[in-house]
Amino acid sequence: MIDEKVLKNIESELKVHAKAMGIPSGSAEVFIKKSLQAVEKNFKNRKLVTKDDITRAVAKELAKYHSDLAYVYENYDKII
Amino acid sequence: MFASLAIIILAIGIQTLLQLSQGVFAVFYHHALGKTTAKKADDRSLSFILGVEIFTAVFYLLTYLIVSFVITQKGFDNIILVWIMIGIFIAEAVFFFFCYYKMGKKYKKTSRLFVNRHVAEALIYKAEHAKSRTDTIILGIVTSAIELAFTLPLFVISSVEILRFDSRFGFLFIVIYVIAATAPLFGTRILFRANNTLAGIMQIRSSKKNLYRILITIGYLSIAALVFITGVVK
User: How many CB atoms lie within 10 A of CB A60?
Assistant: First the structure.
């Protein structure tokens, strides 16, 4: 299970990325929420979840709605 | 004279292809766009560029001063210094080829650089949280300082070659060098302003990394060869 606080942090991080990429805030909010809900559901019964697991799962869900945002979220810390 | 000019041009070329400051700048600009308005992000980005310019100008002039002192003492044709320079550039070429971009399957799709993970995370954190102009200028300075291992030999060799020219040309070359060092940052800024996103910039960086690796390695080796030809063979 993923901590509520972690999901909130990811949500705000994704909103910053979405705004920077010029994605309309209304639609961004909707698909970010949907993606995070799907990730939360996937990990509901798992006791141990790593940061990498969450990143990969969120990117996978996001890719269904916006591939560029998913790419940035997954590879953001690998730019340098 | 032709060889000196070629060395200066190669040094400028290598300097513009180095990726660390461009990467940090892209993260910084992207985050500024996400947290503020496009106008503010644009304005703040100039502070980062100013930081890089300050560091490059100060370090370049300092190197130029030291090099001109050494040349006055030892002269241009000191064979030991020539061999040291050749050795440094061959070492830089090898170091760059194998270490500048992290190698391995894990890093195939990304453009991870030589910097330690903690340092990279700290740079990204600072790029995300730079709030004032001073923060941004310091970020530019620190980023340039981290890349000094690759830029210092370029400062030294181009200073040596600039000293062979008339002093008026020398000053012009220094100005060109400092401006060229920040040209890629202006390029990234233009890309962002033309509605390109970080995703596009990251994809360009990772798709071109092998090209840059080869070009810069050849650049370092060419400088070593030119120093050898002008300093040893003559």
Answer: 15
Token pair, residue B230, equals: 């002008």
Number of domains in chain A: 1
Contact A34, A65 (CB under 8 A): yes
Residue with tokens 């909130």: A8
Determine, for residues B27 and A79 on separate chains, whether the beta-carbon distance falls below 8 Å: yes
Q: Tell me the pLDDT tens digit for each residue of B44-101.
A: 999 999 999 999 999 999 999 999 999 888 887 788 889 999 999 999 999 999 999 9
Tokens of B90: 């061959």
Q: Closest residue of B to A18, CA-based? A: B34
How do residues A11-43 score in pLDDT, each as one tens digit?
999 999 999 999 998 999 999 999 999 998 888
Residue in B closest to A68 by C-alpha:
B199
DSSP-based helix, strand, coil % in chain A, nearest 5: 75, 0, 25
Planar angle of CA B127, B108, A77, nearest 5 degrees: 20
List the domain boundaries for chain B: 2-233
Structure tokens at A62: 């996001």
Q: A54 lies in which domain range? A: 4-78
- Is B33 in Cβ contact with A79 (below 8 Å)? no
Chain A residues with a Cβ under 8 Å from any Cβ in chain B: 15-22, 68-69, 71-72, 75-80
Residue B73 one-letter amino acid: Q
Report ipTM for this prediction: 0.90
